[in-house]
Every structure is written in C-alpha cells, then in structure tokens.
Write a structure and sequence with these properties.
With 246 residues, the chain is mostly helical. It is built from eleven helices and two strands. A hairpin with a 3-residue loop joins strand 1 and strand 2. Helix 5 packs across helix 7 and helix 5 packs parallel to helix 10.
Length: 246
C-alpha cells in the first residue's frame, strides 16, 4: 500500500497519484490501468473514492473506459494538456527533455507576439506594473525564488497589457509549467544579472510603442533562456555558448 495523503483529501490523493503515473509514463498510452480491486488495495481507499478519482481523470482526457478492459490510458495528444493539474504533473521534477522543448517552443510562438501586441495596446498602468516587476527582479538577484516570482510577474504583465482575454487566460493556465521551467534555466546570480538588460530592452520597446522591437527583444530573451535549458540538460552543442555560468 502506498503512503497515505498528507493534508489532502482521499479523492485528490488518488487522482494525483494515478495522474502522475500516467503523465510520467509509468502507465503507457493505450495500456490498461490495474484492475479496480488492486488499486483499491494499493491506495487503501473505498471503491467509491477510486471511481470518483477515475472520473476526474477521464474529465482531464487521461483515461477512458473500455468495455471488458476497464480504464485505458488515452494517447498523449488527447490529454487536456492545459489543465493546471496535468501541467503540474508534467513539469514536476524531473521533467522530460521533450516536455521542456515543447514549452519553450510555445513560449517562442506566443510571447514575442504578445510583446508586439502589448507595445500597441499597453496602458500607463500596465507599463507601471512592468516597471514594478523589473524593480523586484533587480532587488532579488541574490534570491532565486524571489527572482523567478518577479520574472513571472513581468511576463504576466506583458500578457495583461495585450488586453486579449484568451492570451491572458492561456498564460495564467500555463503558470505552473512556466514556474517549473524557470527553475531550470534561472539558476544563478550571474544569470539573473545577465538577463536584466534583456528585460529592460523589452520594457523599453513596449513603453515606447515599438512593436517590432518589442517582438524581437522578447524573442532574443527566450532564445537565450533556451540555450541555458540545453546547457543544463546536457544537450548544448560544443559551439552553442551559454551566456552565463552557475
């Protein structure tokens, strides 16, 4: 029997444990979950609690019920990948390299475009929010956790400045993955200091209503972070220089 929940309801506990196993590949796509009786015994819960957890996982697109096969894991492309819990399970340490690459590609698609739009639509209040976040980053270069929090605030302010409710929602939903991603490439005081000028350039372009420059500056910022991710995951090429050391 696995260890019981701590400060967590039984339903949430079972949902999380099975969800993590699916997302981490312990239960492979198109494979069947263990039979109900085995899971009930393993988790030490009632059948009603297990069935409620399985209903939740079906709602997240992770499993489906198949006649005479019980619960089957669905293909990954059918999962609700923007579900906050699924994202959280996917980017818990250690995240797969493919998951990290997928997230970076999404950032490269969305964030430069968001910066371009923000440069056209930003209000003085939104610019002030970016300045506040940048000030927090500057004040926390010696504190990685605080720096990452301020960094996330800066990027969230860019999305807010677009005024596009869908973009804002997508960025909010991806917050868990974004935070985990930052922990991989934002790991040193030297790195913190190096990125400050890049963030200032993004802010300057948005504040001065220069859409193309804002888009370019944010793309360069993310590409630099991408090089750091490749370095920290041991995939940097010999010529692919990383800007800062640990």
């Amino acid at each position: 029997m696995v260890a019981g929940p701590s400060g967590q309801g039984l339903h949430d506990y079972v949902t999380t444990e099975i969800g993590r196993r699916i997302v981490r590949g312990e239960y492979h796509p198109d494979s069947s979950l263990p039979i109900e009786g085995r899971l009930v015994t393993e988790f030490g819960v009632s059948r009603a609690t297990l069935r409620e957890a399985l209903r939740t996982l079906r709602g997240k697109g992770l499993i489906e019920t198949v006649t005479r096969r019980g619960s089957r894991v669905r293909p990954e492309h059918e999962w609700h990948l923007l579900d906050p819990q699924v994202l959280g399970w996917r980017y818990e340490s250690p995240a797969r390299n493919q998951d990290l690459d997928d997230l970076m590609q999404v950032r490269l698609i969305l964030e430069p475009a968001a910066a371009r739009l923000a440069a056209k639509t930003r209000s003085p209040q939104m610019v002030a929010s970016m300045h506040m976040a940048l000030d927090k980053m500057r004040a926390s270069v010696r504190d990685t956790e605080a720096f990452i929090e301020a960094d996330l605030e800066f990027h969230a302010a860019i999305f807010l400045a677009t005024g596009n409710s869908i973009l804002i929602h997508v960025n909010s939903m991806m917050g868990v993955a974004m935070a985990a991603h930052r922990h991989l490439h934002t790991r040193s005081q030297r790195r913190h200091r190096a990125t400050m000028s890049e963030h200032r350039e993004v802010l300057r372009a948005i504040e001065e209503r220069q859409p193309r420059q804002a888009e370019k500056a944010l793309r360069e910022l993310i590409e630099a972070a991408q090089r750091d991710v490749l370095h920290y995951t041991g995939r940097a090429t010999q010529s692919g220089a990383r800007r800062s050391g640990p």
